[in-house]
Automatic annotation (TrEMBL):
Entry keyword Transport: no
Pfam families for the chain: Glycos_transf_4
InterPro entries on file: Glycosyl_transferase_4
Descriptive protein name: UDP-GlcNAc:undecaprenyl-phosphate GlcNAc-1-phosphate transferase
GO CC annotations, alphabetized: plasma membrane
EC top class, as a word: transferase
Transmembrane segments: 20-39, 68-91, 97-115, 124-142, 154-173, 185-205, 211-230, 242-260, 266-287, 321-339, 345-362
Keyword Transcription part of the UniProt annotation: no
Topological category with respect to the lipid bilayer: Multi-pass membrane protein
Cellular compartment(s): Cell membrane
C-alpha cells in the first residue's frame, strides 16, 4: 500500500482514495460517457435541421456532414465541471471567479463558433469576440506576467503591465485560432486536444495551486475522448469552429489558472511545447500566405496545413490522425520533462493516453466492421 501511495504521489495525487482524486476521476468519466452518449442525439437533430458542412474542394466528406459536435463536447465538459463543483467546491474565491470567467469566455466562443458554422461570420467579428474573451480573463486576474517568464529581463511596472496584457491577448487569440486551423482531417483536433489536456492535467497536478486547472482539464479530456469515438475516420460528426474554439481557448486559459502569480508566466513553458504542433502549423501557414501576397492570411483557406501535407503522403485520414496524435504526445513528453515532472508520471501518462486513444479508435473501427457485415448479406440477397 505504501508503494502504491508513493507511486500516486509521483502523479501529484496526495491521497489515492481521497475526495480530491475521486472527484477528478469522476469528472473525466462523466465528460467521457456523457459526450459519447449525447453525440448521436445531437447528430440526429443536426441532420433534421440542416446543421451540416457541405462537400467542397477543401473538405474530405462526400456528403453533408453534421457540424454540431462542438455543442455536445461543450455540454459534456460543462456537465462534468458542475458535477466536480458539487462534489468538491472551489473554496478560494479568486480562483472561483477565474473558473467562472473561463467558462463564460468558452461559452461565448462556442456560441460564436456555432453561429459561424451555420451562417458565416466575418473574420473581423470573430477576432473581436476572441479578444473580448481574452479581456474577460485579464480583468479577472488571468494573464501572462512578462516579468515571471524565465530567462527574460525584469521590466519596470509601467512597461510590464501593457506588455503582459498584449502577450495575454496574443496567447489566447493565437492558440484559439491555431487549434481551429488544425481541424481539417477527421480525429486530429479531438485526439490532439485529448493528448494536450491529459499532459497539462498531470503537469498541473504537480502544483498545489492548480487544483481547479486539474478539474477543468479532466472534463476537457473526457469530452474529447467521448467525441473522438464518433469522429475517427470516417467521421459521423465534426466539431466545427464551436468545438475547436472550445479546445484552443480553454487550454490557453487554463494554463494561466492558479493562485501563485509567480507561476503564471513560467507555466506557459509546458503549454507552448505541448501545443507546438498547432502553433507551428499556424505560423508556417500564415508566413506562406503572406509570402504569396495574401493580405488576410486567416481568411483564405488552402491545403498547406501540416495535416494536409501528412494526408497527401499517407493517403489515409486514419494514419494522418494517428501520426499527429503521436507527434502531439512526443511534444507533451518534452514539455513534461522541461517542467520537471517525475519520470513515472510521464511514463504513466503516455501509457494511459495511448490506451485511451487505441480504445476509442478500435471501438470505432469495430463498429464500422459490424455495420459493413450487416449490410453485405442484404446486398447479396
Amino acid at each position: 500500500m505504501e508503494s502504491l501511495k508513493a507511486l500516486a504521489a509521483q502523479f501529484g495525487i496526495a491521497d489515492l482514495f481521497g475526495r480530491g482524486f475521486l472527484s477528478v476521476l469522476l469528472t473525466f468519466l462523466t465528460a467521457w460517457v456523457f459526450t459519447w452518449r449525447f453525440i448521436p442525439r445531437v447528430r440526429e437533430f443536426a441532420i433534421k435541421v440542416g446543421w451540416a458542412d457541405m462537400p467542397n474542394a477543401r473538405r474530405l466528406n462526400k456528403e453533408p456532414l453534421p457540424n454540431a459536435g462542438g455543442l455536445a463536447i461543450f455540454a459534456g465538459f460543462l456537465v462534468s465541471v458542475v458535477v466536480a463543483w458539487a462534489l468538491r467546491p472551489i473554496v478560494i474565491e479568486q480562483v472561483n471567479i477565474q473558473v467562472l470567467a473561463i467558462l463564460l469566455g468558452a461559452s461565448l466562443l462556442v456560441l460564436v463558433g456555432f453561429i459561424d458554422d451555420q451562417f458565416g461570420l466575418s473574420p473581423l467579428f470573430r477576432l473581436l469576440v476572441q479578444m473580448l474573451a481574452a479581456v474577460l480573463l485579464i480583468v479577472n486576474g488571468l494573464k501572462v506576467d512578462f516579468n515571471a517568464i524565465p530567462f527574460m529581463p525584469v521590466l519596470p511596472h509601467a512597461v510590464n503591465g501593457p506588455l503582459s496584457i498584449l502577450l495575454t491577448v496574443l496567447w489566447i487569440v493565437g492558440l484559439t485560432n491555431a487549434v481551429n486551423l488544425m481541424d481539417g482531417v477527421d480525429g486530429v483536433v479531438g485526439g490532439v486536444g485529448f493528448v494536450a489536456s491529459m499532459v497539462l492535467l498531470v503537469t498541473a497536478a504537480q502544483f498545489a495551486d492548480r487544483a481547479a486547472a486539474v478539474v477543468l482539464l479532466a472534463g476537457l479530456a473526457g469530452a474529447a475522448l467521448g467525441y473522438l469515438r464518433h469522429n475517427f475516420n470516417p467521421s459521423r460528426i465534426i466539431m466545427g469552429d464551436a468545438g475547436a474554439y472550445l479546445f484552443g481557448y480553454t487550454l490557453a486559459a487554463v494554463s494561466l489558472l492558479g493562485t501563485l502569480k509567480v507561476s503564471a508566466g513560467a507555466s506557459l513553458l509546458v503549454p507552448l511545447i505541448v501545443m507546438a504542433l498547432p502553433i507551428l502549423d499556424t505560423t508556417q501557414v500564415v508566413i506562406g500566405r503572406l509570402a504569396r501576397g495574401i493580405r488576410n492570411p486567416l481568411g483564405h483557406p488552402d491545403k498547406t496545413h501540416i495535416h494536409h501535407r501528412v494526408l497527401a503522403r499517407t493517403a489515409s485520414a486514419r494514419r494522418t490522425a494517428v501520426i499527429l496524435w503521436l507527434v502531439a504526445l512526443a511534444c507533451g513528453v518534452i514539455g513534461m520533462l522541461a517542467q520537471g515532472v517525475p519520470l513515472p508520471a510521464i511514463l504513466g501518462t503516455v501509457v494511459v493516453v495511448l490506451l485511451c486513444l487505441w480504445f476509442v479508435a478500435y471501438r470505432r473501427v469495430r463498429a464500422l466492421d459490424r455495420e459493413a457485415a450487416a449490410v453485405t448479406p442484404g446486398q447479396g440477397g
